[in-house]
Amino acid sequence: MTKRSWLTGSPAAAVILPIIGLAAAIALWWLATVVFSIQPYLLPTPWDVVVKFFDQPGALLSETGTSLLETIEGFLLAIVIGVPIALLIVRSVVLERLVYPLLLMVNSIPKVAIAPLLVVWMGFGQWPKIVMVLLMCFFPIVISTAQGMKSTPTELVELMRSLNATRAQEFFKLRLRYAMPQIFTGFKVAISLAVIGAVIGEFVGATKGLGYVIQQSGASADTTLAFAAIMLLSVMSIVLFYGLVLLEHLLLPWAQEKR
Amino acid sequence: MIRLDGVGQVFDGREGRVTALEKIDLHVRGGEFVTLIGRSGCGKSTLLRLIAGLLPPTSGSVQVAEEPVTGPRRDVSFMFQRPALLPWRSVLSNVMLPVEIDKGSDRGKAAYRDRAHQLLELVGLQGFERRLPHELSGGMQQRVSLCRSLIRDPQVMLMDEPFSALDALTRTELSEELQRIKMELATTIVFVTHSIEEAVVLADRVVVLTPRPGRMREVVDIDIPRPRSLAQNAYVTEVAKISARLHALLSEKDSEDRR
């Protein structure tokens, strides 16, 4: 092996490299709009988008807040419902066989198709959006939790048995703890899907949120506004994702070394 | 201390019944060091699990300290081939696990903590108390595991090839440490191995098992003075002689080798 270079080794590079990548992409986008002299209603320049945002930062941030709240609420709800279901599935083969195909079926439904139904059932408030987020997040959380709970090494289970541990001790002191890194993997997949869920929810029967802004700007051919909203959505996704990564580092320092 | 009478073990496998052990009569005196040796699949690990109470025997009786074994006992500890440490716990907290699991302990927690520090010092791990397992080498991890199995001053230690995954040097060191600890604490030890040399160096008596079904082929007394070493020692010829005999017994050339 060659020695680790600055690019792979240093923590500063871990922060700087993604920024360089992002900057390059934005530069390329800018270049394309200039070189091919693309009309702003087709593709605005990055600068247009920034200006658009600063035209009405308060309003756009408040829409972002709406979407963020729906995303987090739906995500938390998915954890509260998904994790216990996964734990039950792992405990009983009968339940697993009973419930698994159902979960698969629900997951395979194109979520866009049921968005209008959710509005019919739950009205125009935030609930259909939260439920949409829940539907998007639910599956990866259940799968990864169930997988994690099954991954306990046999020698550790035997160790707990040899120490006369109760079932509760075996569960809390071993199985659940051991599953945490995999559960977090599920969370990280789910959080990106959660943002998508919120936008889908806001496309139908909404009066606020970034999804609603995109929808409206499409109707009025305000492409720049749509881009501003999309940018805010990506920033939100990235912040949420790295927030989880940070939480994982803090809560599970022992799991880092395994990668 | 340990008494097995007519013990047999039959497993219901996918391809019918497999007799793992048959007609095992073994009596281990208090403070004795017995090694079990045999080819892989001869049921030596199974035998250890029967004594540990991790597995009920199909036939015959298992007694520890004049009492029939019905489950894992507090005064019997089990050490595995792999260190089996909980990756999120510090070295000290891993050593304390048995005390934490079984709250009805005979001493206060502080006393056990002192004992844990003592044991870690005994195996040369002072200063590593707060490290996580992944920060240690394989040999150090197995030393932690050894401390864990000693924390409650067991009367009986059952060891399932505990040194087999270690490099030769660490193995030599640990087998010396184990003999020292054993002489100090007068613990009864049953030690499973597939290394002839290890069996000879450690044991007061070596039990040779035949494979499929596991039967007791022969019990060999070793009266070479201690401490013995896997490295240089004054009794090379004796060790070599007994090793050769065990080798012959294990190679299954039936009765003419017996004597």
TrEMBL record, chain A:
The chain crosses the membrane at residues 12-38, 72-90, 102-124, 130-149, 183-205, 225-252. It comes from the Bacteria. This is NitT/TauT family transport system permease protein. The keyword Zinc does not apply. It is a multi-pass membrane protein. GO terms for cellular component: plasma membrane. It comes from Kribbella rubisoli. CDD domains: TM_PBP2. Keywords: Cell membrane, Membrane, Transmembrane, Transmembrane helix, Transport. Belongs to the binding-protein-dependent transport system permease family. InterPro entries: MetI-like (IPR000515), MetI-like_sf (IPR035906). It is found in: Cell membrane. Gene3D superfamilies: MetI-like. PANTHER family: ABC TRANSPORTER PERMEASE PROTEIN HI_0355-RELATED (PTHR30151:SF20), ALKANE SULFONATE ABC TRANSPORTER-RELATED, MEMBRANE SUBUNIT (PTHR30151). The keyword Transmembrane helix applies. GO terms for biological process: transmembrane transport. Residues 64-242 form the ABC transmembrane type-1 domain.
Automatic annotation (TrEMBL), chain B:
GO terms for molecular function: ATP binding; ATP hydrolysis activity. Keywords: ATP-binding, Nucleotide-binding, Transport. Gene3D superfamilies: P-loop containing nucleotide triphosphate hydrolases. It comes from the Bacteria. Residues 2-236 form the ABC transporter domain. CDD domains: ABC_NrtD_SsuB_transporters. SMART domains: AAA. This is NitT/TauT family transport system ATP-binding protein.
